[in-house]
Design brief:
The structure holds 2 protein chains of 2 kinds.
Chain A: H1 2-30, H2 36-50, H3 54-76, H4 85-123, H5 126-132, H6 137-175, H7 180-190, H8 193-221, H9 226-257
Chain B: H1 2-29, E1 40-47, E2 58-61, E3 64-74, E4 81-88, E5 100-105, E6 112-117, E7 130-131, E8 133-135, H2 140-160
Parallel strand pairs in B: 1-7, 2-6, 5-8
Antiparallel strand pairs in B: 1-4, 2-3, 3-4, 5-6
Classes of the chains: A mainly alpha, B alpha/beta.
């Protein structure tokens, strides 16, 4: 019985310690003194994290936009409201699907890669070697990745939304024959830039920070064995996706919930 | 060095494409018109019932959008809904003082908007002026209520016979 309480207590302490370490890592690497060499590292990471995620983002955006238009059309046409298709597609994408799906794909594509890379660095003792020669791995390795994730996910979400709206246009207007003027017109009269677009971007900034934070922390904090790397990579994707979905509900309630 | 140059070009393209996407979202998707800022003037109108009108709803004339609703509040004296509208400067000094403003609905369940119709008076509405002739929102409930009460009356008279 006492051992049982002890195990609960130990786990709680472990979780709290991990939260504390991760917050420490986040603050140290986000607000380290910026240097010019850091910009070069950041650009490299923007390429790895952002540009190389483009293919999966583009392809899934196109298909999500197309399937959204197809499903939406089949229901709306029953009510003779197929003119509202543009509104449906644009609002769903800008408010929810764009930031969330881009963040989920990002957690799978870029987050896991970050964790595995940092984890392998730790397992092969590259991080300790850096410390030995007086280079702070938080600034050299973690900080550029965090900033790259924070900046590139909003950009990816914007591209996602644009491509998906175009995919909806292809299916809705070109294939199913919704009038092109009402597709764009209904969209324009219902989407408010300050409300929908900006809130979507704020969401994806939050998601970008959280997903890369989890990825970086899992990589930095893992048990340096091959099994540890594989478990940390899995945890990055699982925790990252759950955090995105949970935070999405909270953010939506804050942004759109109160009328 | 060659490789970093390629990286930089790739990242630069990525950022530029994303910002072009943002411009697309602004202009084509949310319909922000860059010139809609300056050249407008303000007109108010008091309605007995504003229905589902919201700020940013359209103001139209003959079906063409000529402005938007800026603000809606309650007139403290007459307890009417006071709607403040921004109207394009092209209509300045062309709306006569006996113009009518009506709250209309696009389609059966669509959004509500303000429709303006001009009158015959030679005096024009100035900036900050008020449209006196208004037609309040036609709620679906009140229509049904009228219809049902009309039916109810008939039923009563029939049962009395």
């Amino acid at each position: 019985m006492i051992a049982w309480f002890g195990s609960i207590g130990r786990r709680t302490l472990d979780v709290l310690a991990a939260v504390g370490r991760s917050a420490f890592i986040l603050l140290r690497s986000l607000f380290g003194v910026p240097r010019w060499s850091g910009v070069r590292l950041w650009i490299t990471q923007m390429h790895v994290v952002g540009v190389l995620s483009l293919p999966i983002i583009l392809v899934s955006a196109l298909f999500i936009g197309m399937v959204l238009a197809l499903q939406g059309y089949m229901i709306l046409v029953d009510y003779g409201a197929d003119a509202a298709l543009g509104q449906l597609v644009a609002l769903a994408l800008l408010r929810e699907l764009g930031p969330v799906v881009a963040a989920l794909l990002f957690a799978g594509r870029a987050g896991s890669a970050i964790t595995a890379e940092i984890g392998l660095m730790k397992a092969t003792e590259q991080l300790s070697s850096m410390e030995m020669i007086g280079v702070d791995p938080l600034k050299r390795v973690l900080s550029p990745r965090l900033w790259a994730g924070l900046v590139s996910l909003p950009l990816l979400s914007i591209i996602f939304a644009v491509v998906a709206i175009y995919g909806g246009y292809i299916v809705g207007v070109e294939w199913l024959g919704v009038f092109s003027g009402s597709y764009w017109g209904n969209m324009q009269s219902s989407v408010q830039f300050g409300h929908d677009v900006v809130n979507g971007i704020i969401k994806s900034v939050v998601f970008g920070l959280v997903v890369t934070w989890i990825a970086v922390f899992q990589g930095y904090d893992l048990v340096p064995t091959s099994e540890g790397i594989s478990r940390a990579t899995t945890r990055t994707v699982v925790y990252g996706s759950l955090a995105v979905l949970g935070l999405d509900f909270v953010l939506t309630a804050l942004m759109f919930g109160g009328a | 060095m060659k490789r970093t140059r390629g990286l930089e070009v790739g990242v630069g393209l990525f950022v530029v494409v994303a910002f072009l996407g943002l411009v697309f979202l602004g202009l084509k998707v949310s319909g922000l018109v860059p010139t809609s800022g300056g050249s407008t003037y303000t007109v108010t109108a008091d309605f007995g019932d504003i229905g589902g009108l919201k700020p940013n709803s359209r103001v139209t004339m003959s079906g063409v959008t000529v402005g938007r609703v800026v603000n809606i509040d309650l007139d403290p004296k007459w307890l009417d809904g006071r709607v403040t509208m921004e109207i394009s400067d092209t209509l300045k000094d062309k709306l006569s003082s006996d113009s009518t403003a009506a709250i209309l609905t696009s389609g059966l369940l669509g959004e509500q908007y303000v429709g303006l119709t001009t009158g015959a008076d030679t005096e024009m509405i100035k900036d900050g002026g008020t449209i006196r002739n208004t037609q309040q929102a036609m709620g679906l409930e009140s229509l049904i209520q009228q219809f049902v009460s009309g039916m109810g009356g008939q039923d009563d008279s029939e049962s009395g016979q």
